[in-house]
Amino acid sequence: MSHVAFAFVLTLALAFFSYNAQRLVRYLRIGNGDVRLNDVPRRVWNLLVIGIAQTKILRDPVAGPLHAMVFWGFLVLQVGALEILVGGVIPGFSYAAILPAPLHWLFLISQELTAAAVLAAVAFLLHRRIVVRPKRLQGDGVHSGDAIFILGLIAGLMVTLLVTAAAERILGSGYPLMAQPVSAPLAAALGWLSPGAAHVVREVSWWLHALLILTFLNYLPYSKHLHVIVSLPNTFLSSTSGPGTVGAMKPMDLETEAEVFGAADVTHLSWKNLLDGYTCTECGRCTSVCPANLTGKLLSPRKIVVNTRQRLMEVAPALVGGDDVFGMPFIGASTGTAESTAAILEHRLLDNFITEEELWACTSCRACVYECPVSIDQLEIINELRRNLVLTESRFPEEILPAFEAMERNGSPWAFQPAERAKWAEGLDIPTMAEMQERGERPDILFWVGCMGSFDDRAKKTTVAFSRILKAAGVRFAILGQEESCNGDPARRMGNEYLYQTLATQAIETLDRYEVATIVTSCPHCFHQIGNEFPQLGGNYEVIHHSTYIERLLADARVPLRTDEGEKLVMAYHDSCYLGRYNEVYDAPRQALKRALPVMTLVEAPRSRDNGLCCGAGGGRMWMEERVGERINVERKKEMLATGADVVAVACPFCMTMLADAGAKLGSTVPVYDIAEVVADRLADGH
Amino acid sequence: MKIAVCIKRVPEMDVTFKIAPTGKAVDETGLKWDMSDFDGYAVEAALQLTEKAGTGEVHVISLGPDVVQETLRKALSMGVAKAVQLKCDTVPFDAYAIGTALAAELKDGGYDLIMFGKMSIDGANGVTQFVVAELLGLPLVHACSKLEIADGKGSARREIEGGGELVSFALPAIVSIDEGIARPRYPSLKGIMAAKRKPLEVRPAQLGEVRLTIETMELPPPRAAGRIIGEGAAAVPELVALLQNEAKVL
Q1: What is the residue range of B102's domain?
Q2: Are the beta carbons of B15 and A497 separated by less than 8 Å?
Q3: For every one of its 250 residues, what pLDDT tens digit does chain B have, with 9 covering 90 and above?
């Protein structure tokens, strides 16, 4: 009788879950297509490393191990859950009946120890949610009640699991003591129960446990804890850690007869962006590392993803039908502003959920994307919305208009005269590609100087320093001179894909005309753009950042250095986002500094390498005033100064400007040098 | 409301110009070209007028060789409905010649309002609109910084020395636009794509007689190097003497 009843309940529960699963999949289909099944081995690798091994989760030293415990416990306990569900339907089914005894005992031990460990972790997590309340679990309408409910469910599952086993032990399950390290002591404690009472306890506890499993399963589709189901698939389908070049913006076809370019609503995003919405469990790791958010701007990457989910849940039923028949909203789905279907259809993600101010605050530093434990791509949503603002609606901060116009007219985001691009090289005897070609020669490398390196007075010193190193090392190199022009990266980051493609196509034509194979550049933005994004437009070159190139020259002992010991400086190196998180170049600049000046001490700011804080210039922020909150560059400079360094080293002209400006604001006399300047300063006499 | 805006393609001004070998024109190599600034304000003002009225359309007209089509397309991408190129091999310097061609095009166009930038930023004559007004017999308000059209009548504000001047006029009329009226919108990609499908008509320019030509063009003489007289109070007497006797400013 009991088995028939359970079979009925189980069928109902699975049917209900299946209904919700299909509904949620149908919602995803309102998004655009996106290919996410290329390079399966790489995706499996991500799944194992980020998903199963929880490497991103473990970046938080407190919540990380606790969550990992619950996650791994969850995996282990699935084996037991299967036994319970099957045993509930088929009388007498038990692993004890099909497994050799020692193996079965091992299974029992695994379940009991895991349950106890999960229970302990849940207790800590509840304490964290209710008592500690860390900052990142606040704000953005985070559903803490939902989290506490889920933690309670998990605790209930663990308790009933152990109590059932203890009651069965009292009733004479007869397993060895050591096979039940938790339930055996519990059974001993409950030894006073009469067999009749123990039987009742066993039945009630078993049913509670089984029903909790089914409740848990069916609660997920209505909760941010949907991530229990979709995290692993999302990690597999994500490209934020590869395959392909990470951080490259999505290719865009401008020749289509589209009404909307970029995204104004969830229907313009890809299904993968929408799946990101399902996957987010509002942990706030992204927002806690966002330089804009940290300094008091409105932007919160978590909110961007939560808003995407909210808008999807609001509009999808109206678009594809299949409003939840039970009228239960996804927790946090209702915004309370749109009552009628017409009002819902008039709503959109942009403006009604996400404002322009949030979008323009982004420095595209990729810290959010890098930090996300479930490989959500917050930045792709931001970029798609920016594209819509500029390409479809021509809405953007007035202050970036001069940058757009200068890129169009002067081939640089500043209104410098193109004729003066190579002025820094006057008298340095550096050939242009045209001059080399005229002589029938070909250089080993093209030095792509970049607009900052060509026009900015401070950055020009880096340009000259790097040229000196190349000459001293006997590298045959050339520049494009006046034929160099902005590669369009700032325009792309600011959403102006049309201008970007115009500029990038021109640059590719120039590079291909000279059959350029290898490019070295001192600008991480040019480095990333030409190396990782030009291939989208058919430009394929080997691109090396000057830090890596200098490091290689030094490693090969090709750079004639002074033989004296040099100054015993303390240096702190600031990681450029486009070099670090975008391209994983962390060691080369540090190594170059050490090789050039072995007696110096390299110190690290608390946030460095993949955890480095942005200087505030990326994502087009270089061309916008920072009016809200603290200034990102000042925050960063404070961190760098707190290391006690005599010199702050950078490997990016934008970081250079930002940190030098911040130094001036803070009244600091600690100089900022590019690594090329540090190395050039150590060149032997006569170079 | 039907508005025509006459626009000119001009070189980007913030560069160091060179004189062409003929000595009668600037060397055009390497120059970037765009719509003249004041003409951009005029196009924007015209678009805002029709948008505010909720009806009507804006046409643009430019005179010159085929390269002006680029400038016309830009106006189309901003939201203008139709463009006309009055084709000629070179743009004459004489505003009368140009104005005659424009007047011939505008005469039977049925325009309520004809707009110009107050002058082209390269030629800096600011005369063409006067020629057209004369030839068409229409009233002209020059250098407007504000413009409103209502009930078939227009009112405009002109900035004059030490104040403003409010002018009212009947339509049809000609206005030329000063800066400060409206910042030209940045064309959206949607606008750029739409512009490709909009009509751009090409007709031969019926130029008037050319009675003015440029004889010669020259760059300003290079500035003489400065002179350092000395430092501090000791240098003051000599400085005063030089300002009195040499510069003759005291």
Answers
A1: 2-204
A2: no
A3: 999 999 999 998 888 899 999 999 999 988 889 999 999 999 999 999 999 999 999 999 999 999 999 999 999 999 999 999 999 999 999 999 999 999 999 999 999 999 999 999 999 999 999 999 999 999 999 999 999 999 889 999 998 889 999 999 999 999 999 998 989 999 999 999 999 999 999 999 999 999 999 999 988 888 888 888 888 888 898 889 888 888 888 7
Last residue of a domain, one of A520, A555, A590: A555
Angle (CA) A81 A83 A88, round 5°: 100
**Residue B237 lies inside a defined structural domain of this protein:** no
ipTM of the complex as predicted: 0.83
Identity (one letter) of the amino acid at A5? A
Provide the angle, in degrees to the nearest 10, between the axes of the packed helices A63-89 and A144-170. 50
Q: Which residues contact B175 (CB under 8 A, 6 or more apart)?
A: B113, B114, B115, B116, B140, B141, B142, B144, B147, B154, B156
Considering CB atoms only, which of B16, B30, B187 is closest to A394?
A: B187
Count of Cβ atoms closer than 10 Å to residue A375 Cβ: 23
CATH number of the domain residue A327 falls in: 1.10.1060
Encoding tokens for residue A63? 């919540």
Considering only CB atoms, A417 lies closest to which of B16, B183, B189, namely B16
State which residue of chain B sits closest to A418, comparing Cα positions: B15
CB atoms within 10 A of CB A386: 27
Q: State whether A465 and A549 are in the same domain.
A: yes
Q: Which of A392, A410, A497 sits opposite B190 (nearest CB)?
A: A392
State whether A538 and A598 are in the same domain.
no
Closest Cα of chain A to B31: distance in Å? 9
Residues A11 and A159 in one domain: yes
| Chain B CB contacts of A398 below 8 Å | 183
- In this structure, is residue B213 part of a structural domain? no
Same domain (yes/no): A95, A225: yes
Cβ distance A276 to A308 under 8 Å? Answer: yes
Residue A545 pairs in a beta bridge with A521
CA A102 to chain centroid, in Å, comes to 44
Residue for token pair 């104040």: B163
- Residue A120 counted as domain residue: yes
Does B126 map to a domain?
yes
Where are the extended beta strands (E) located within A495-550?
518-521, 542-545
Full domain range(s) for residue A64:
2-29+40-134+142-237
A504 and A588 fall within a common domain:
no
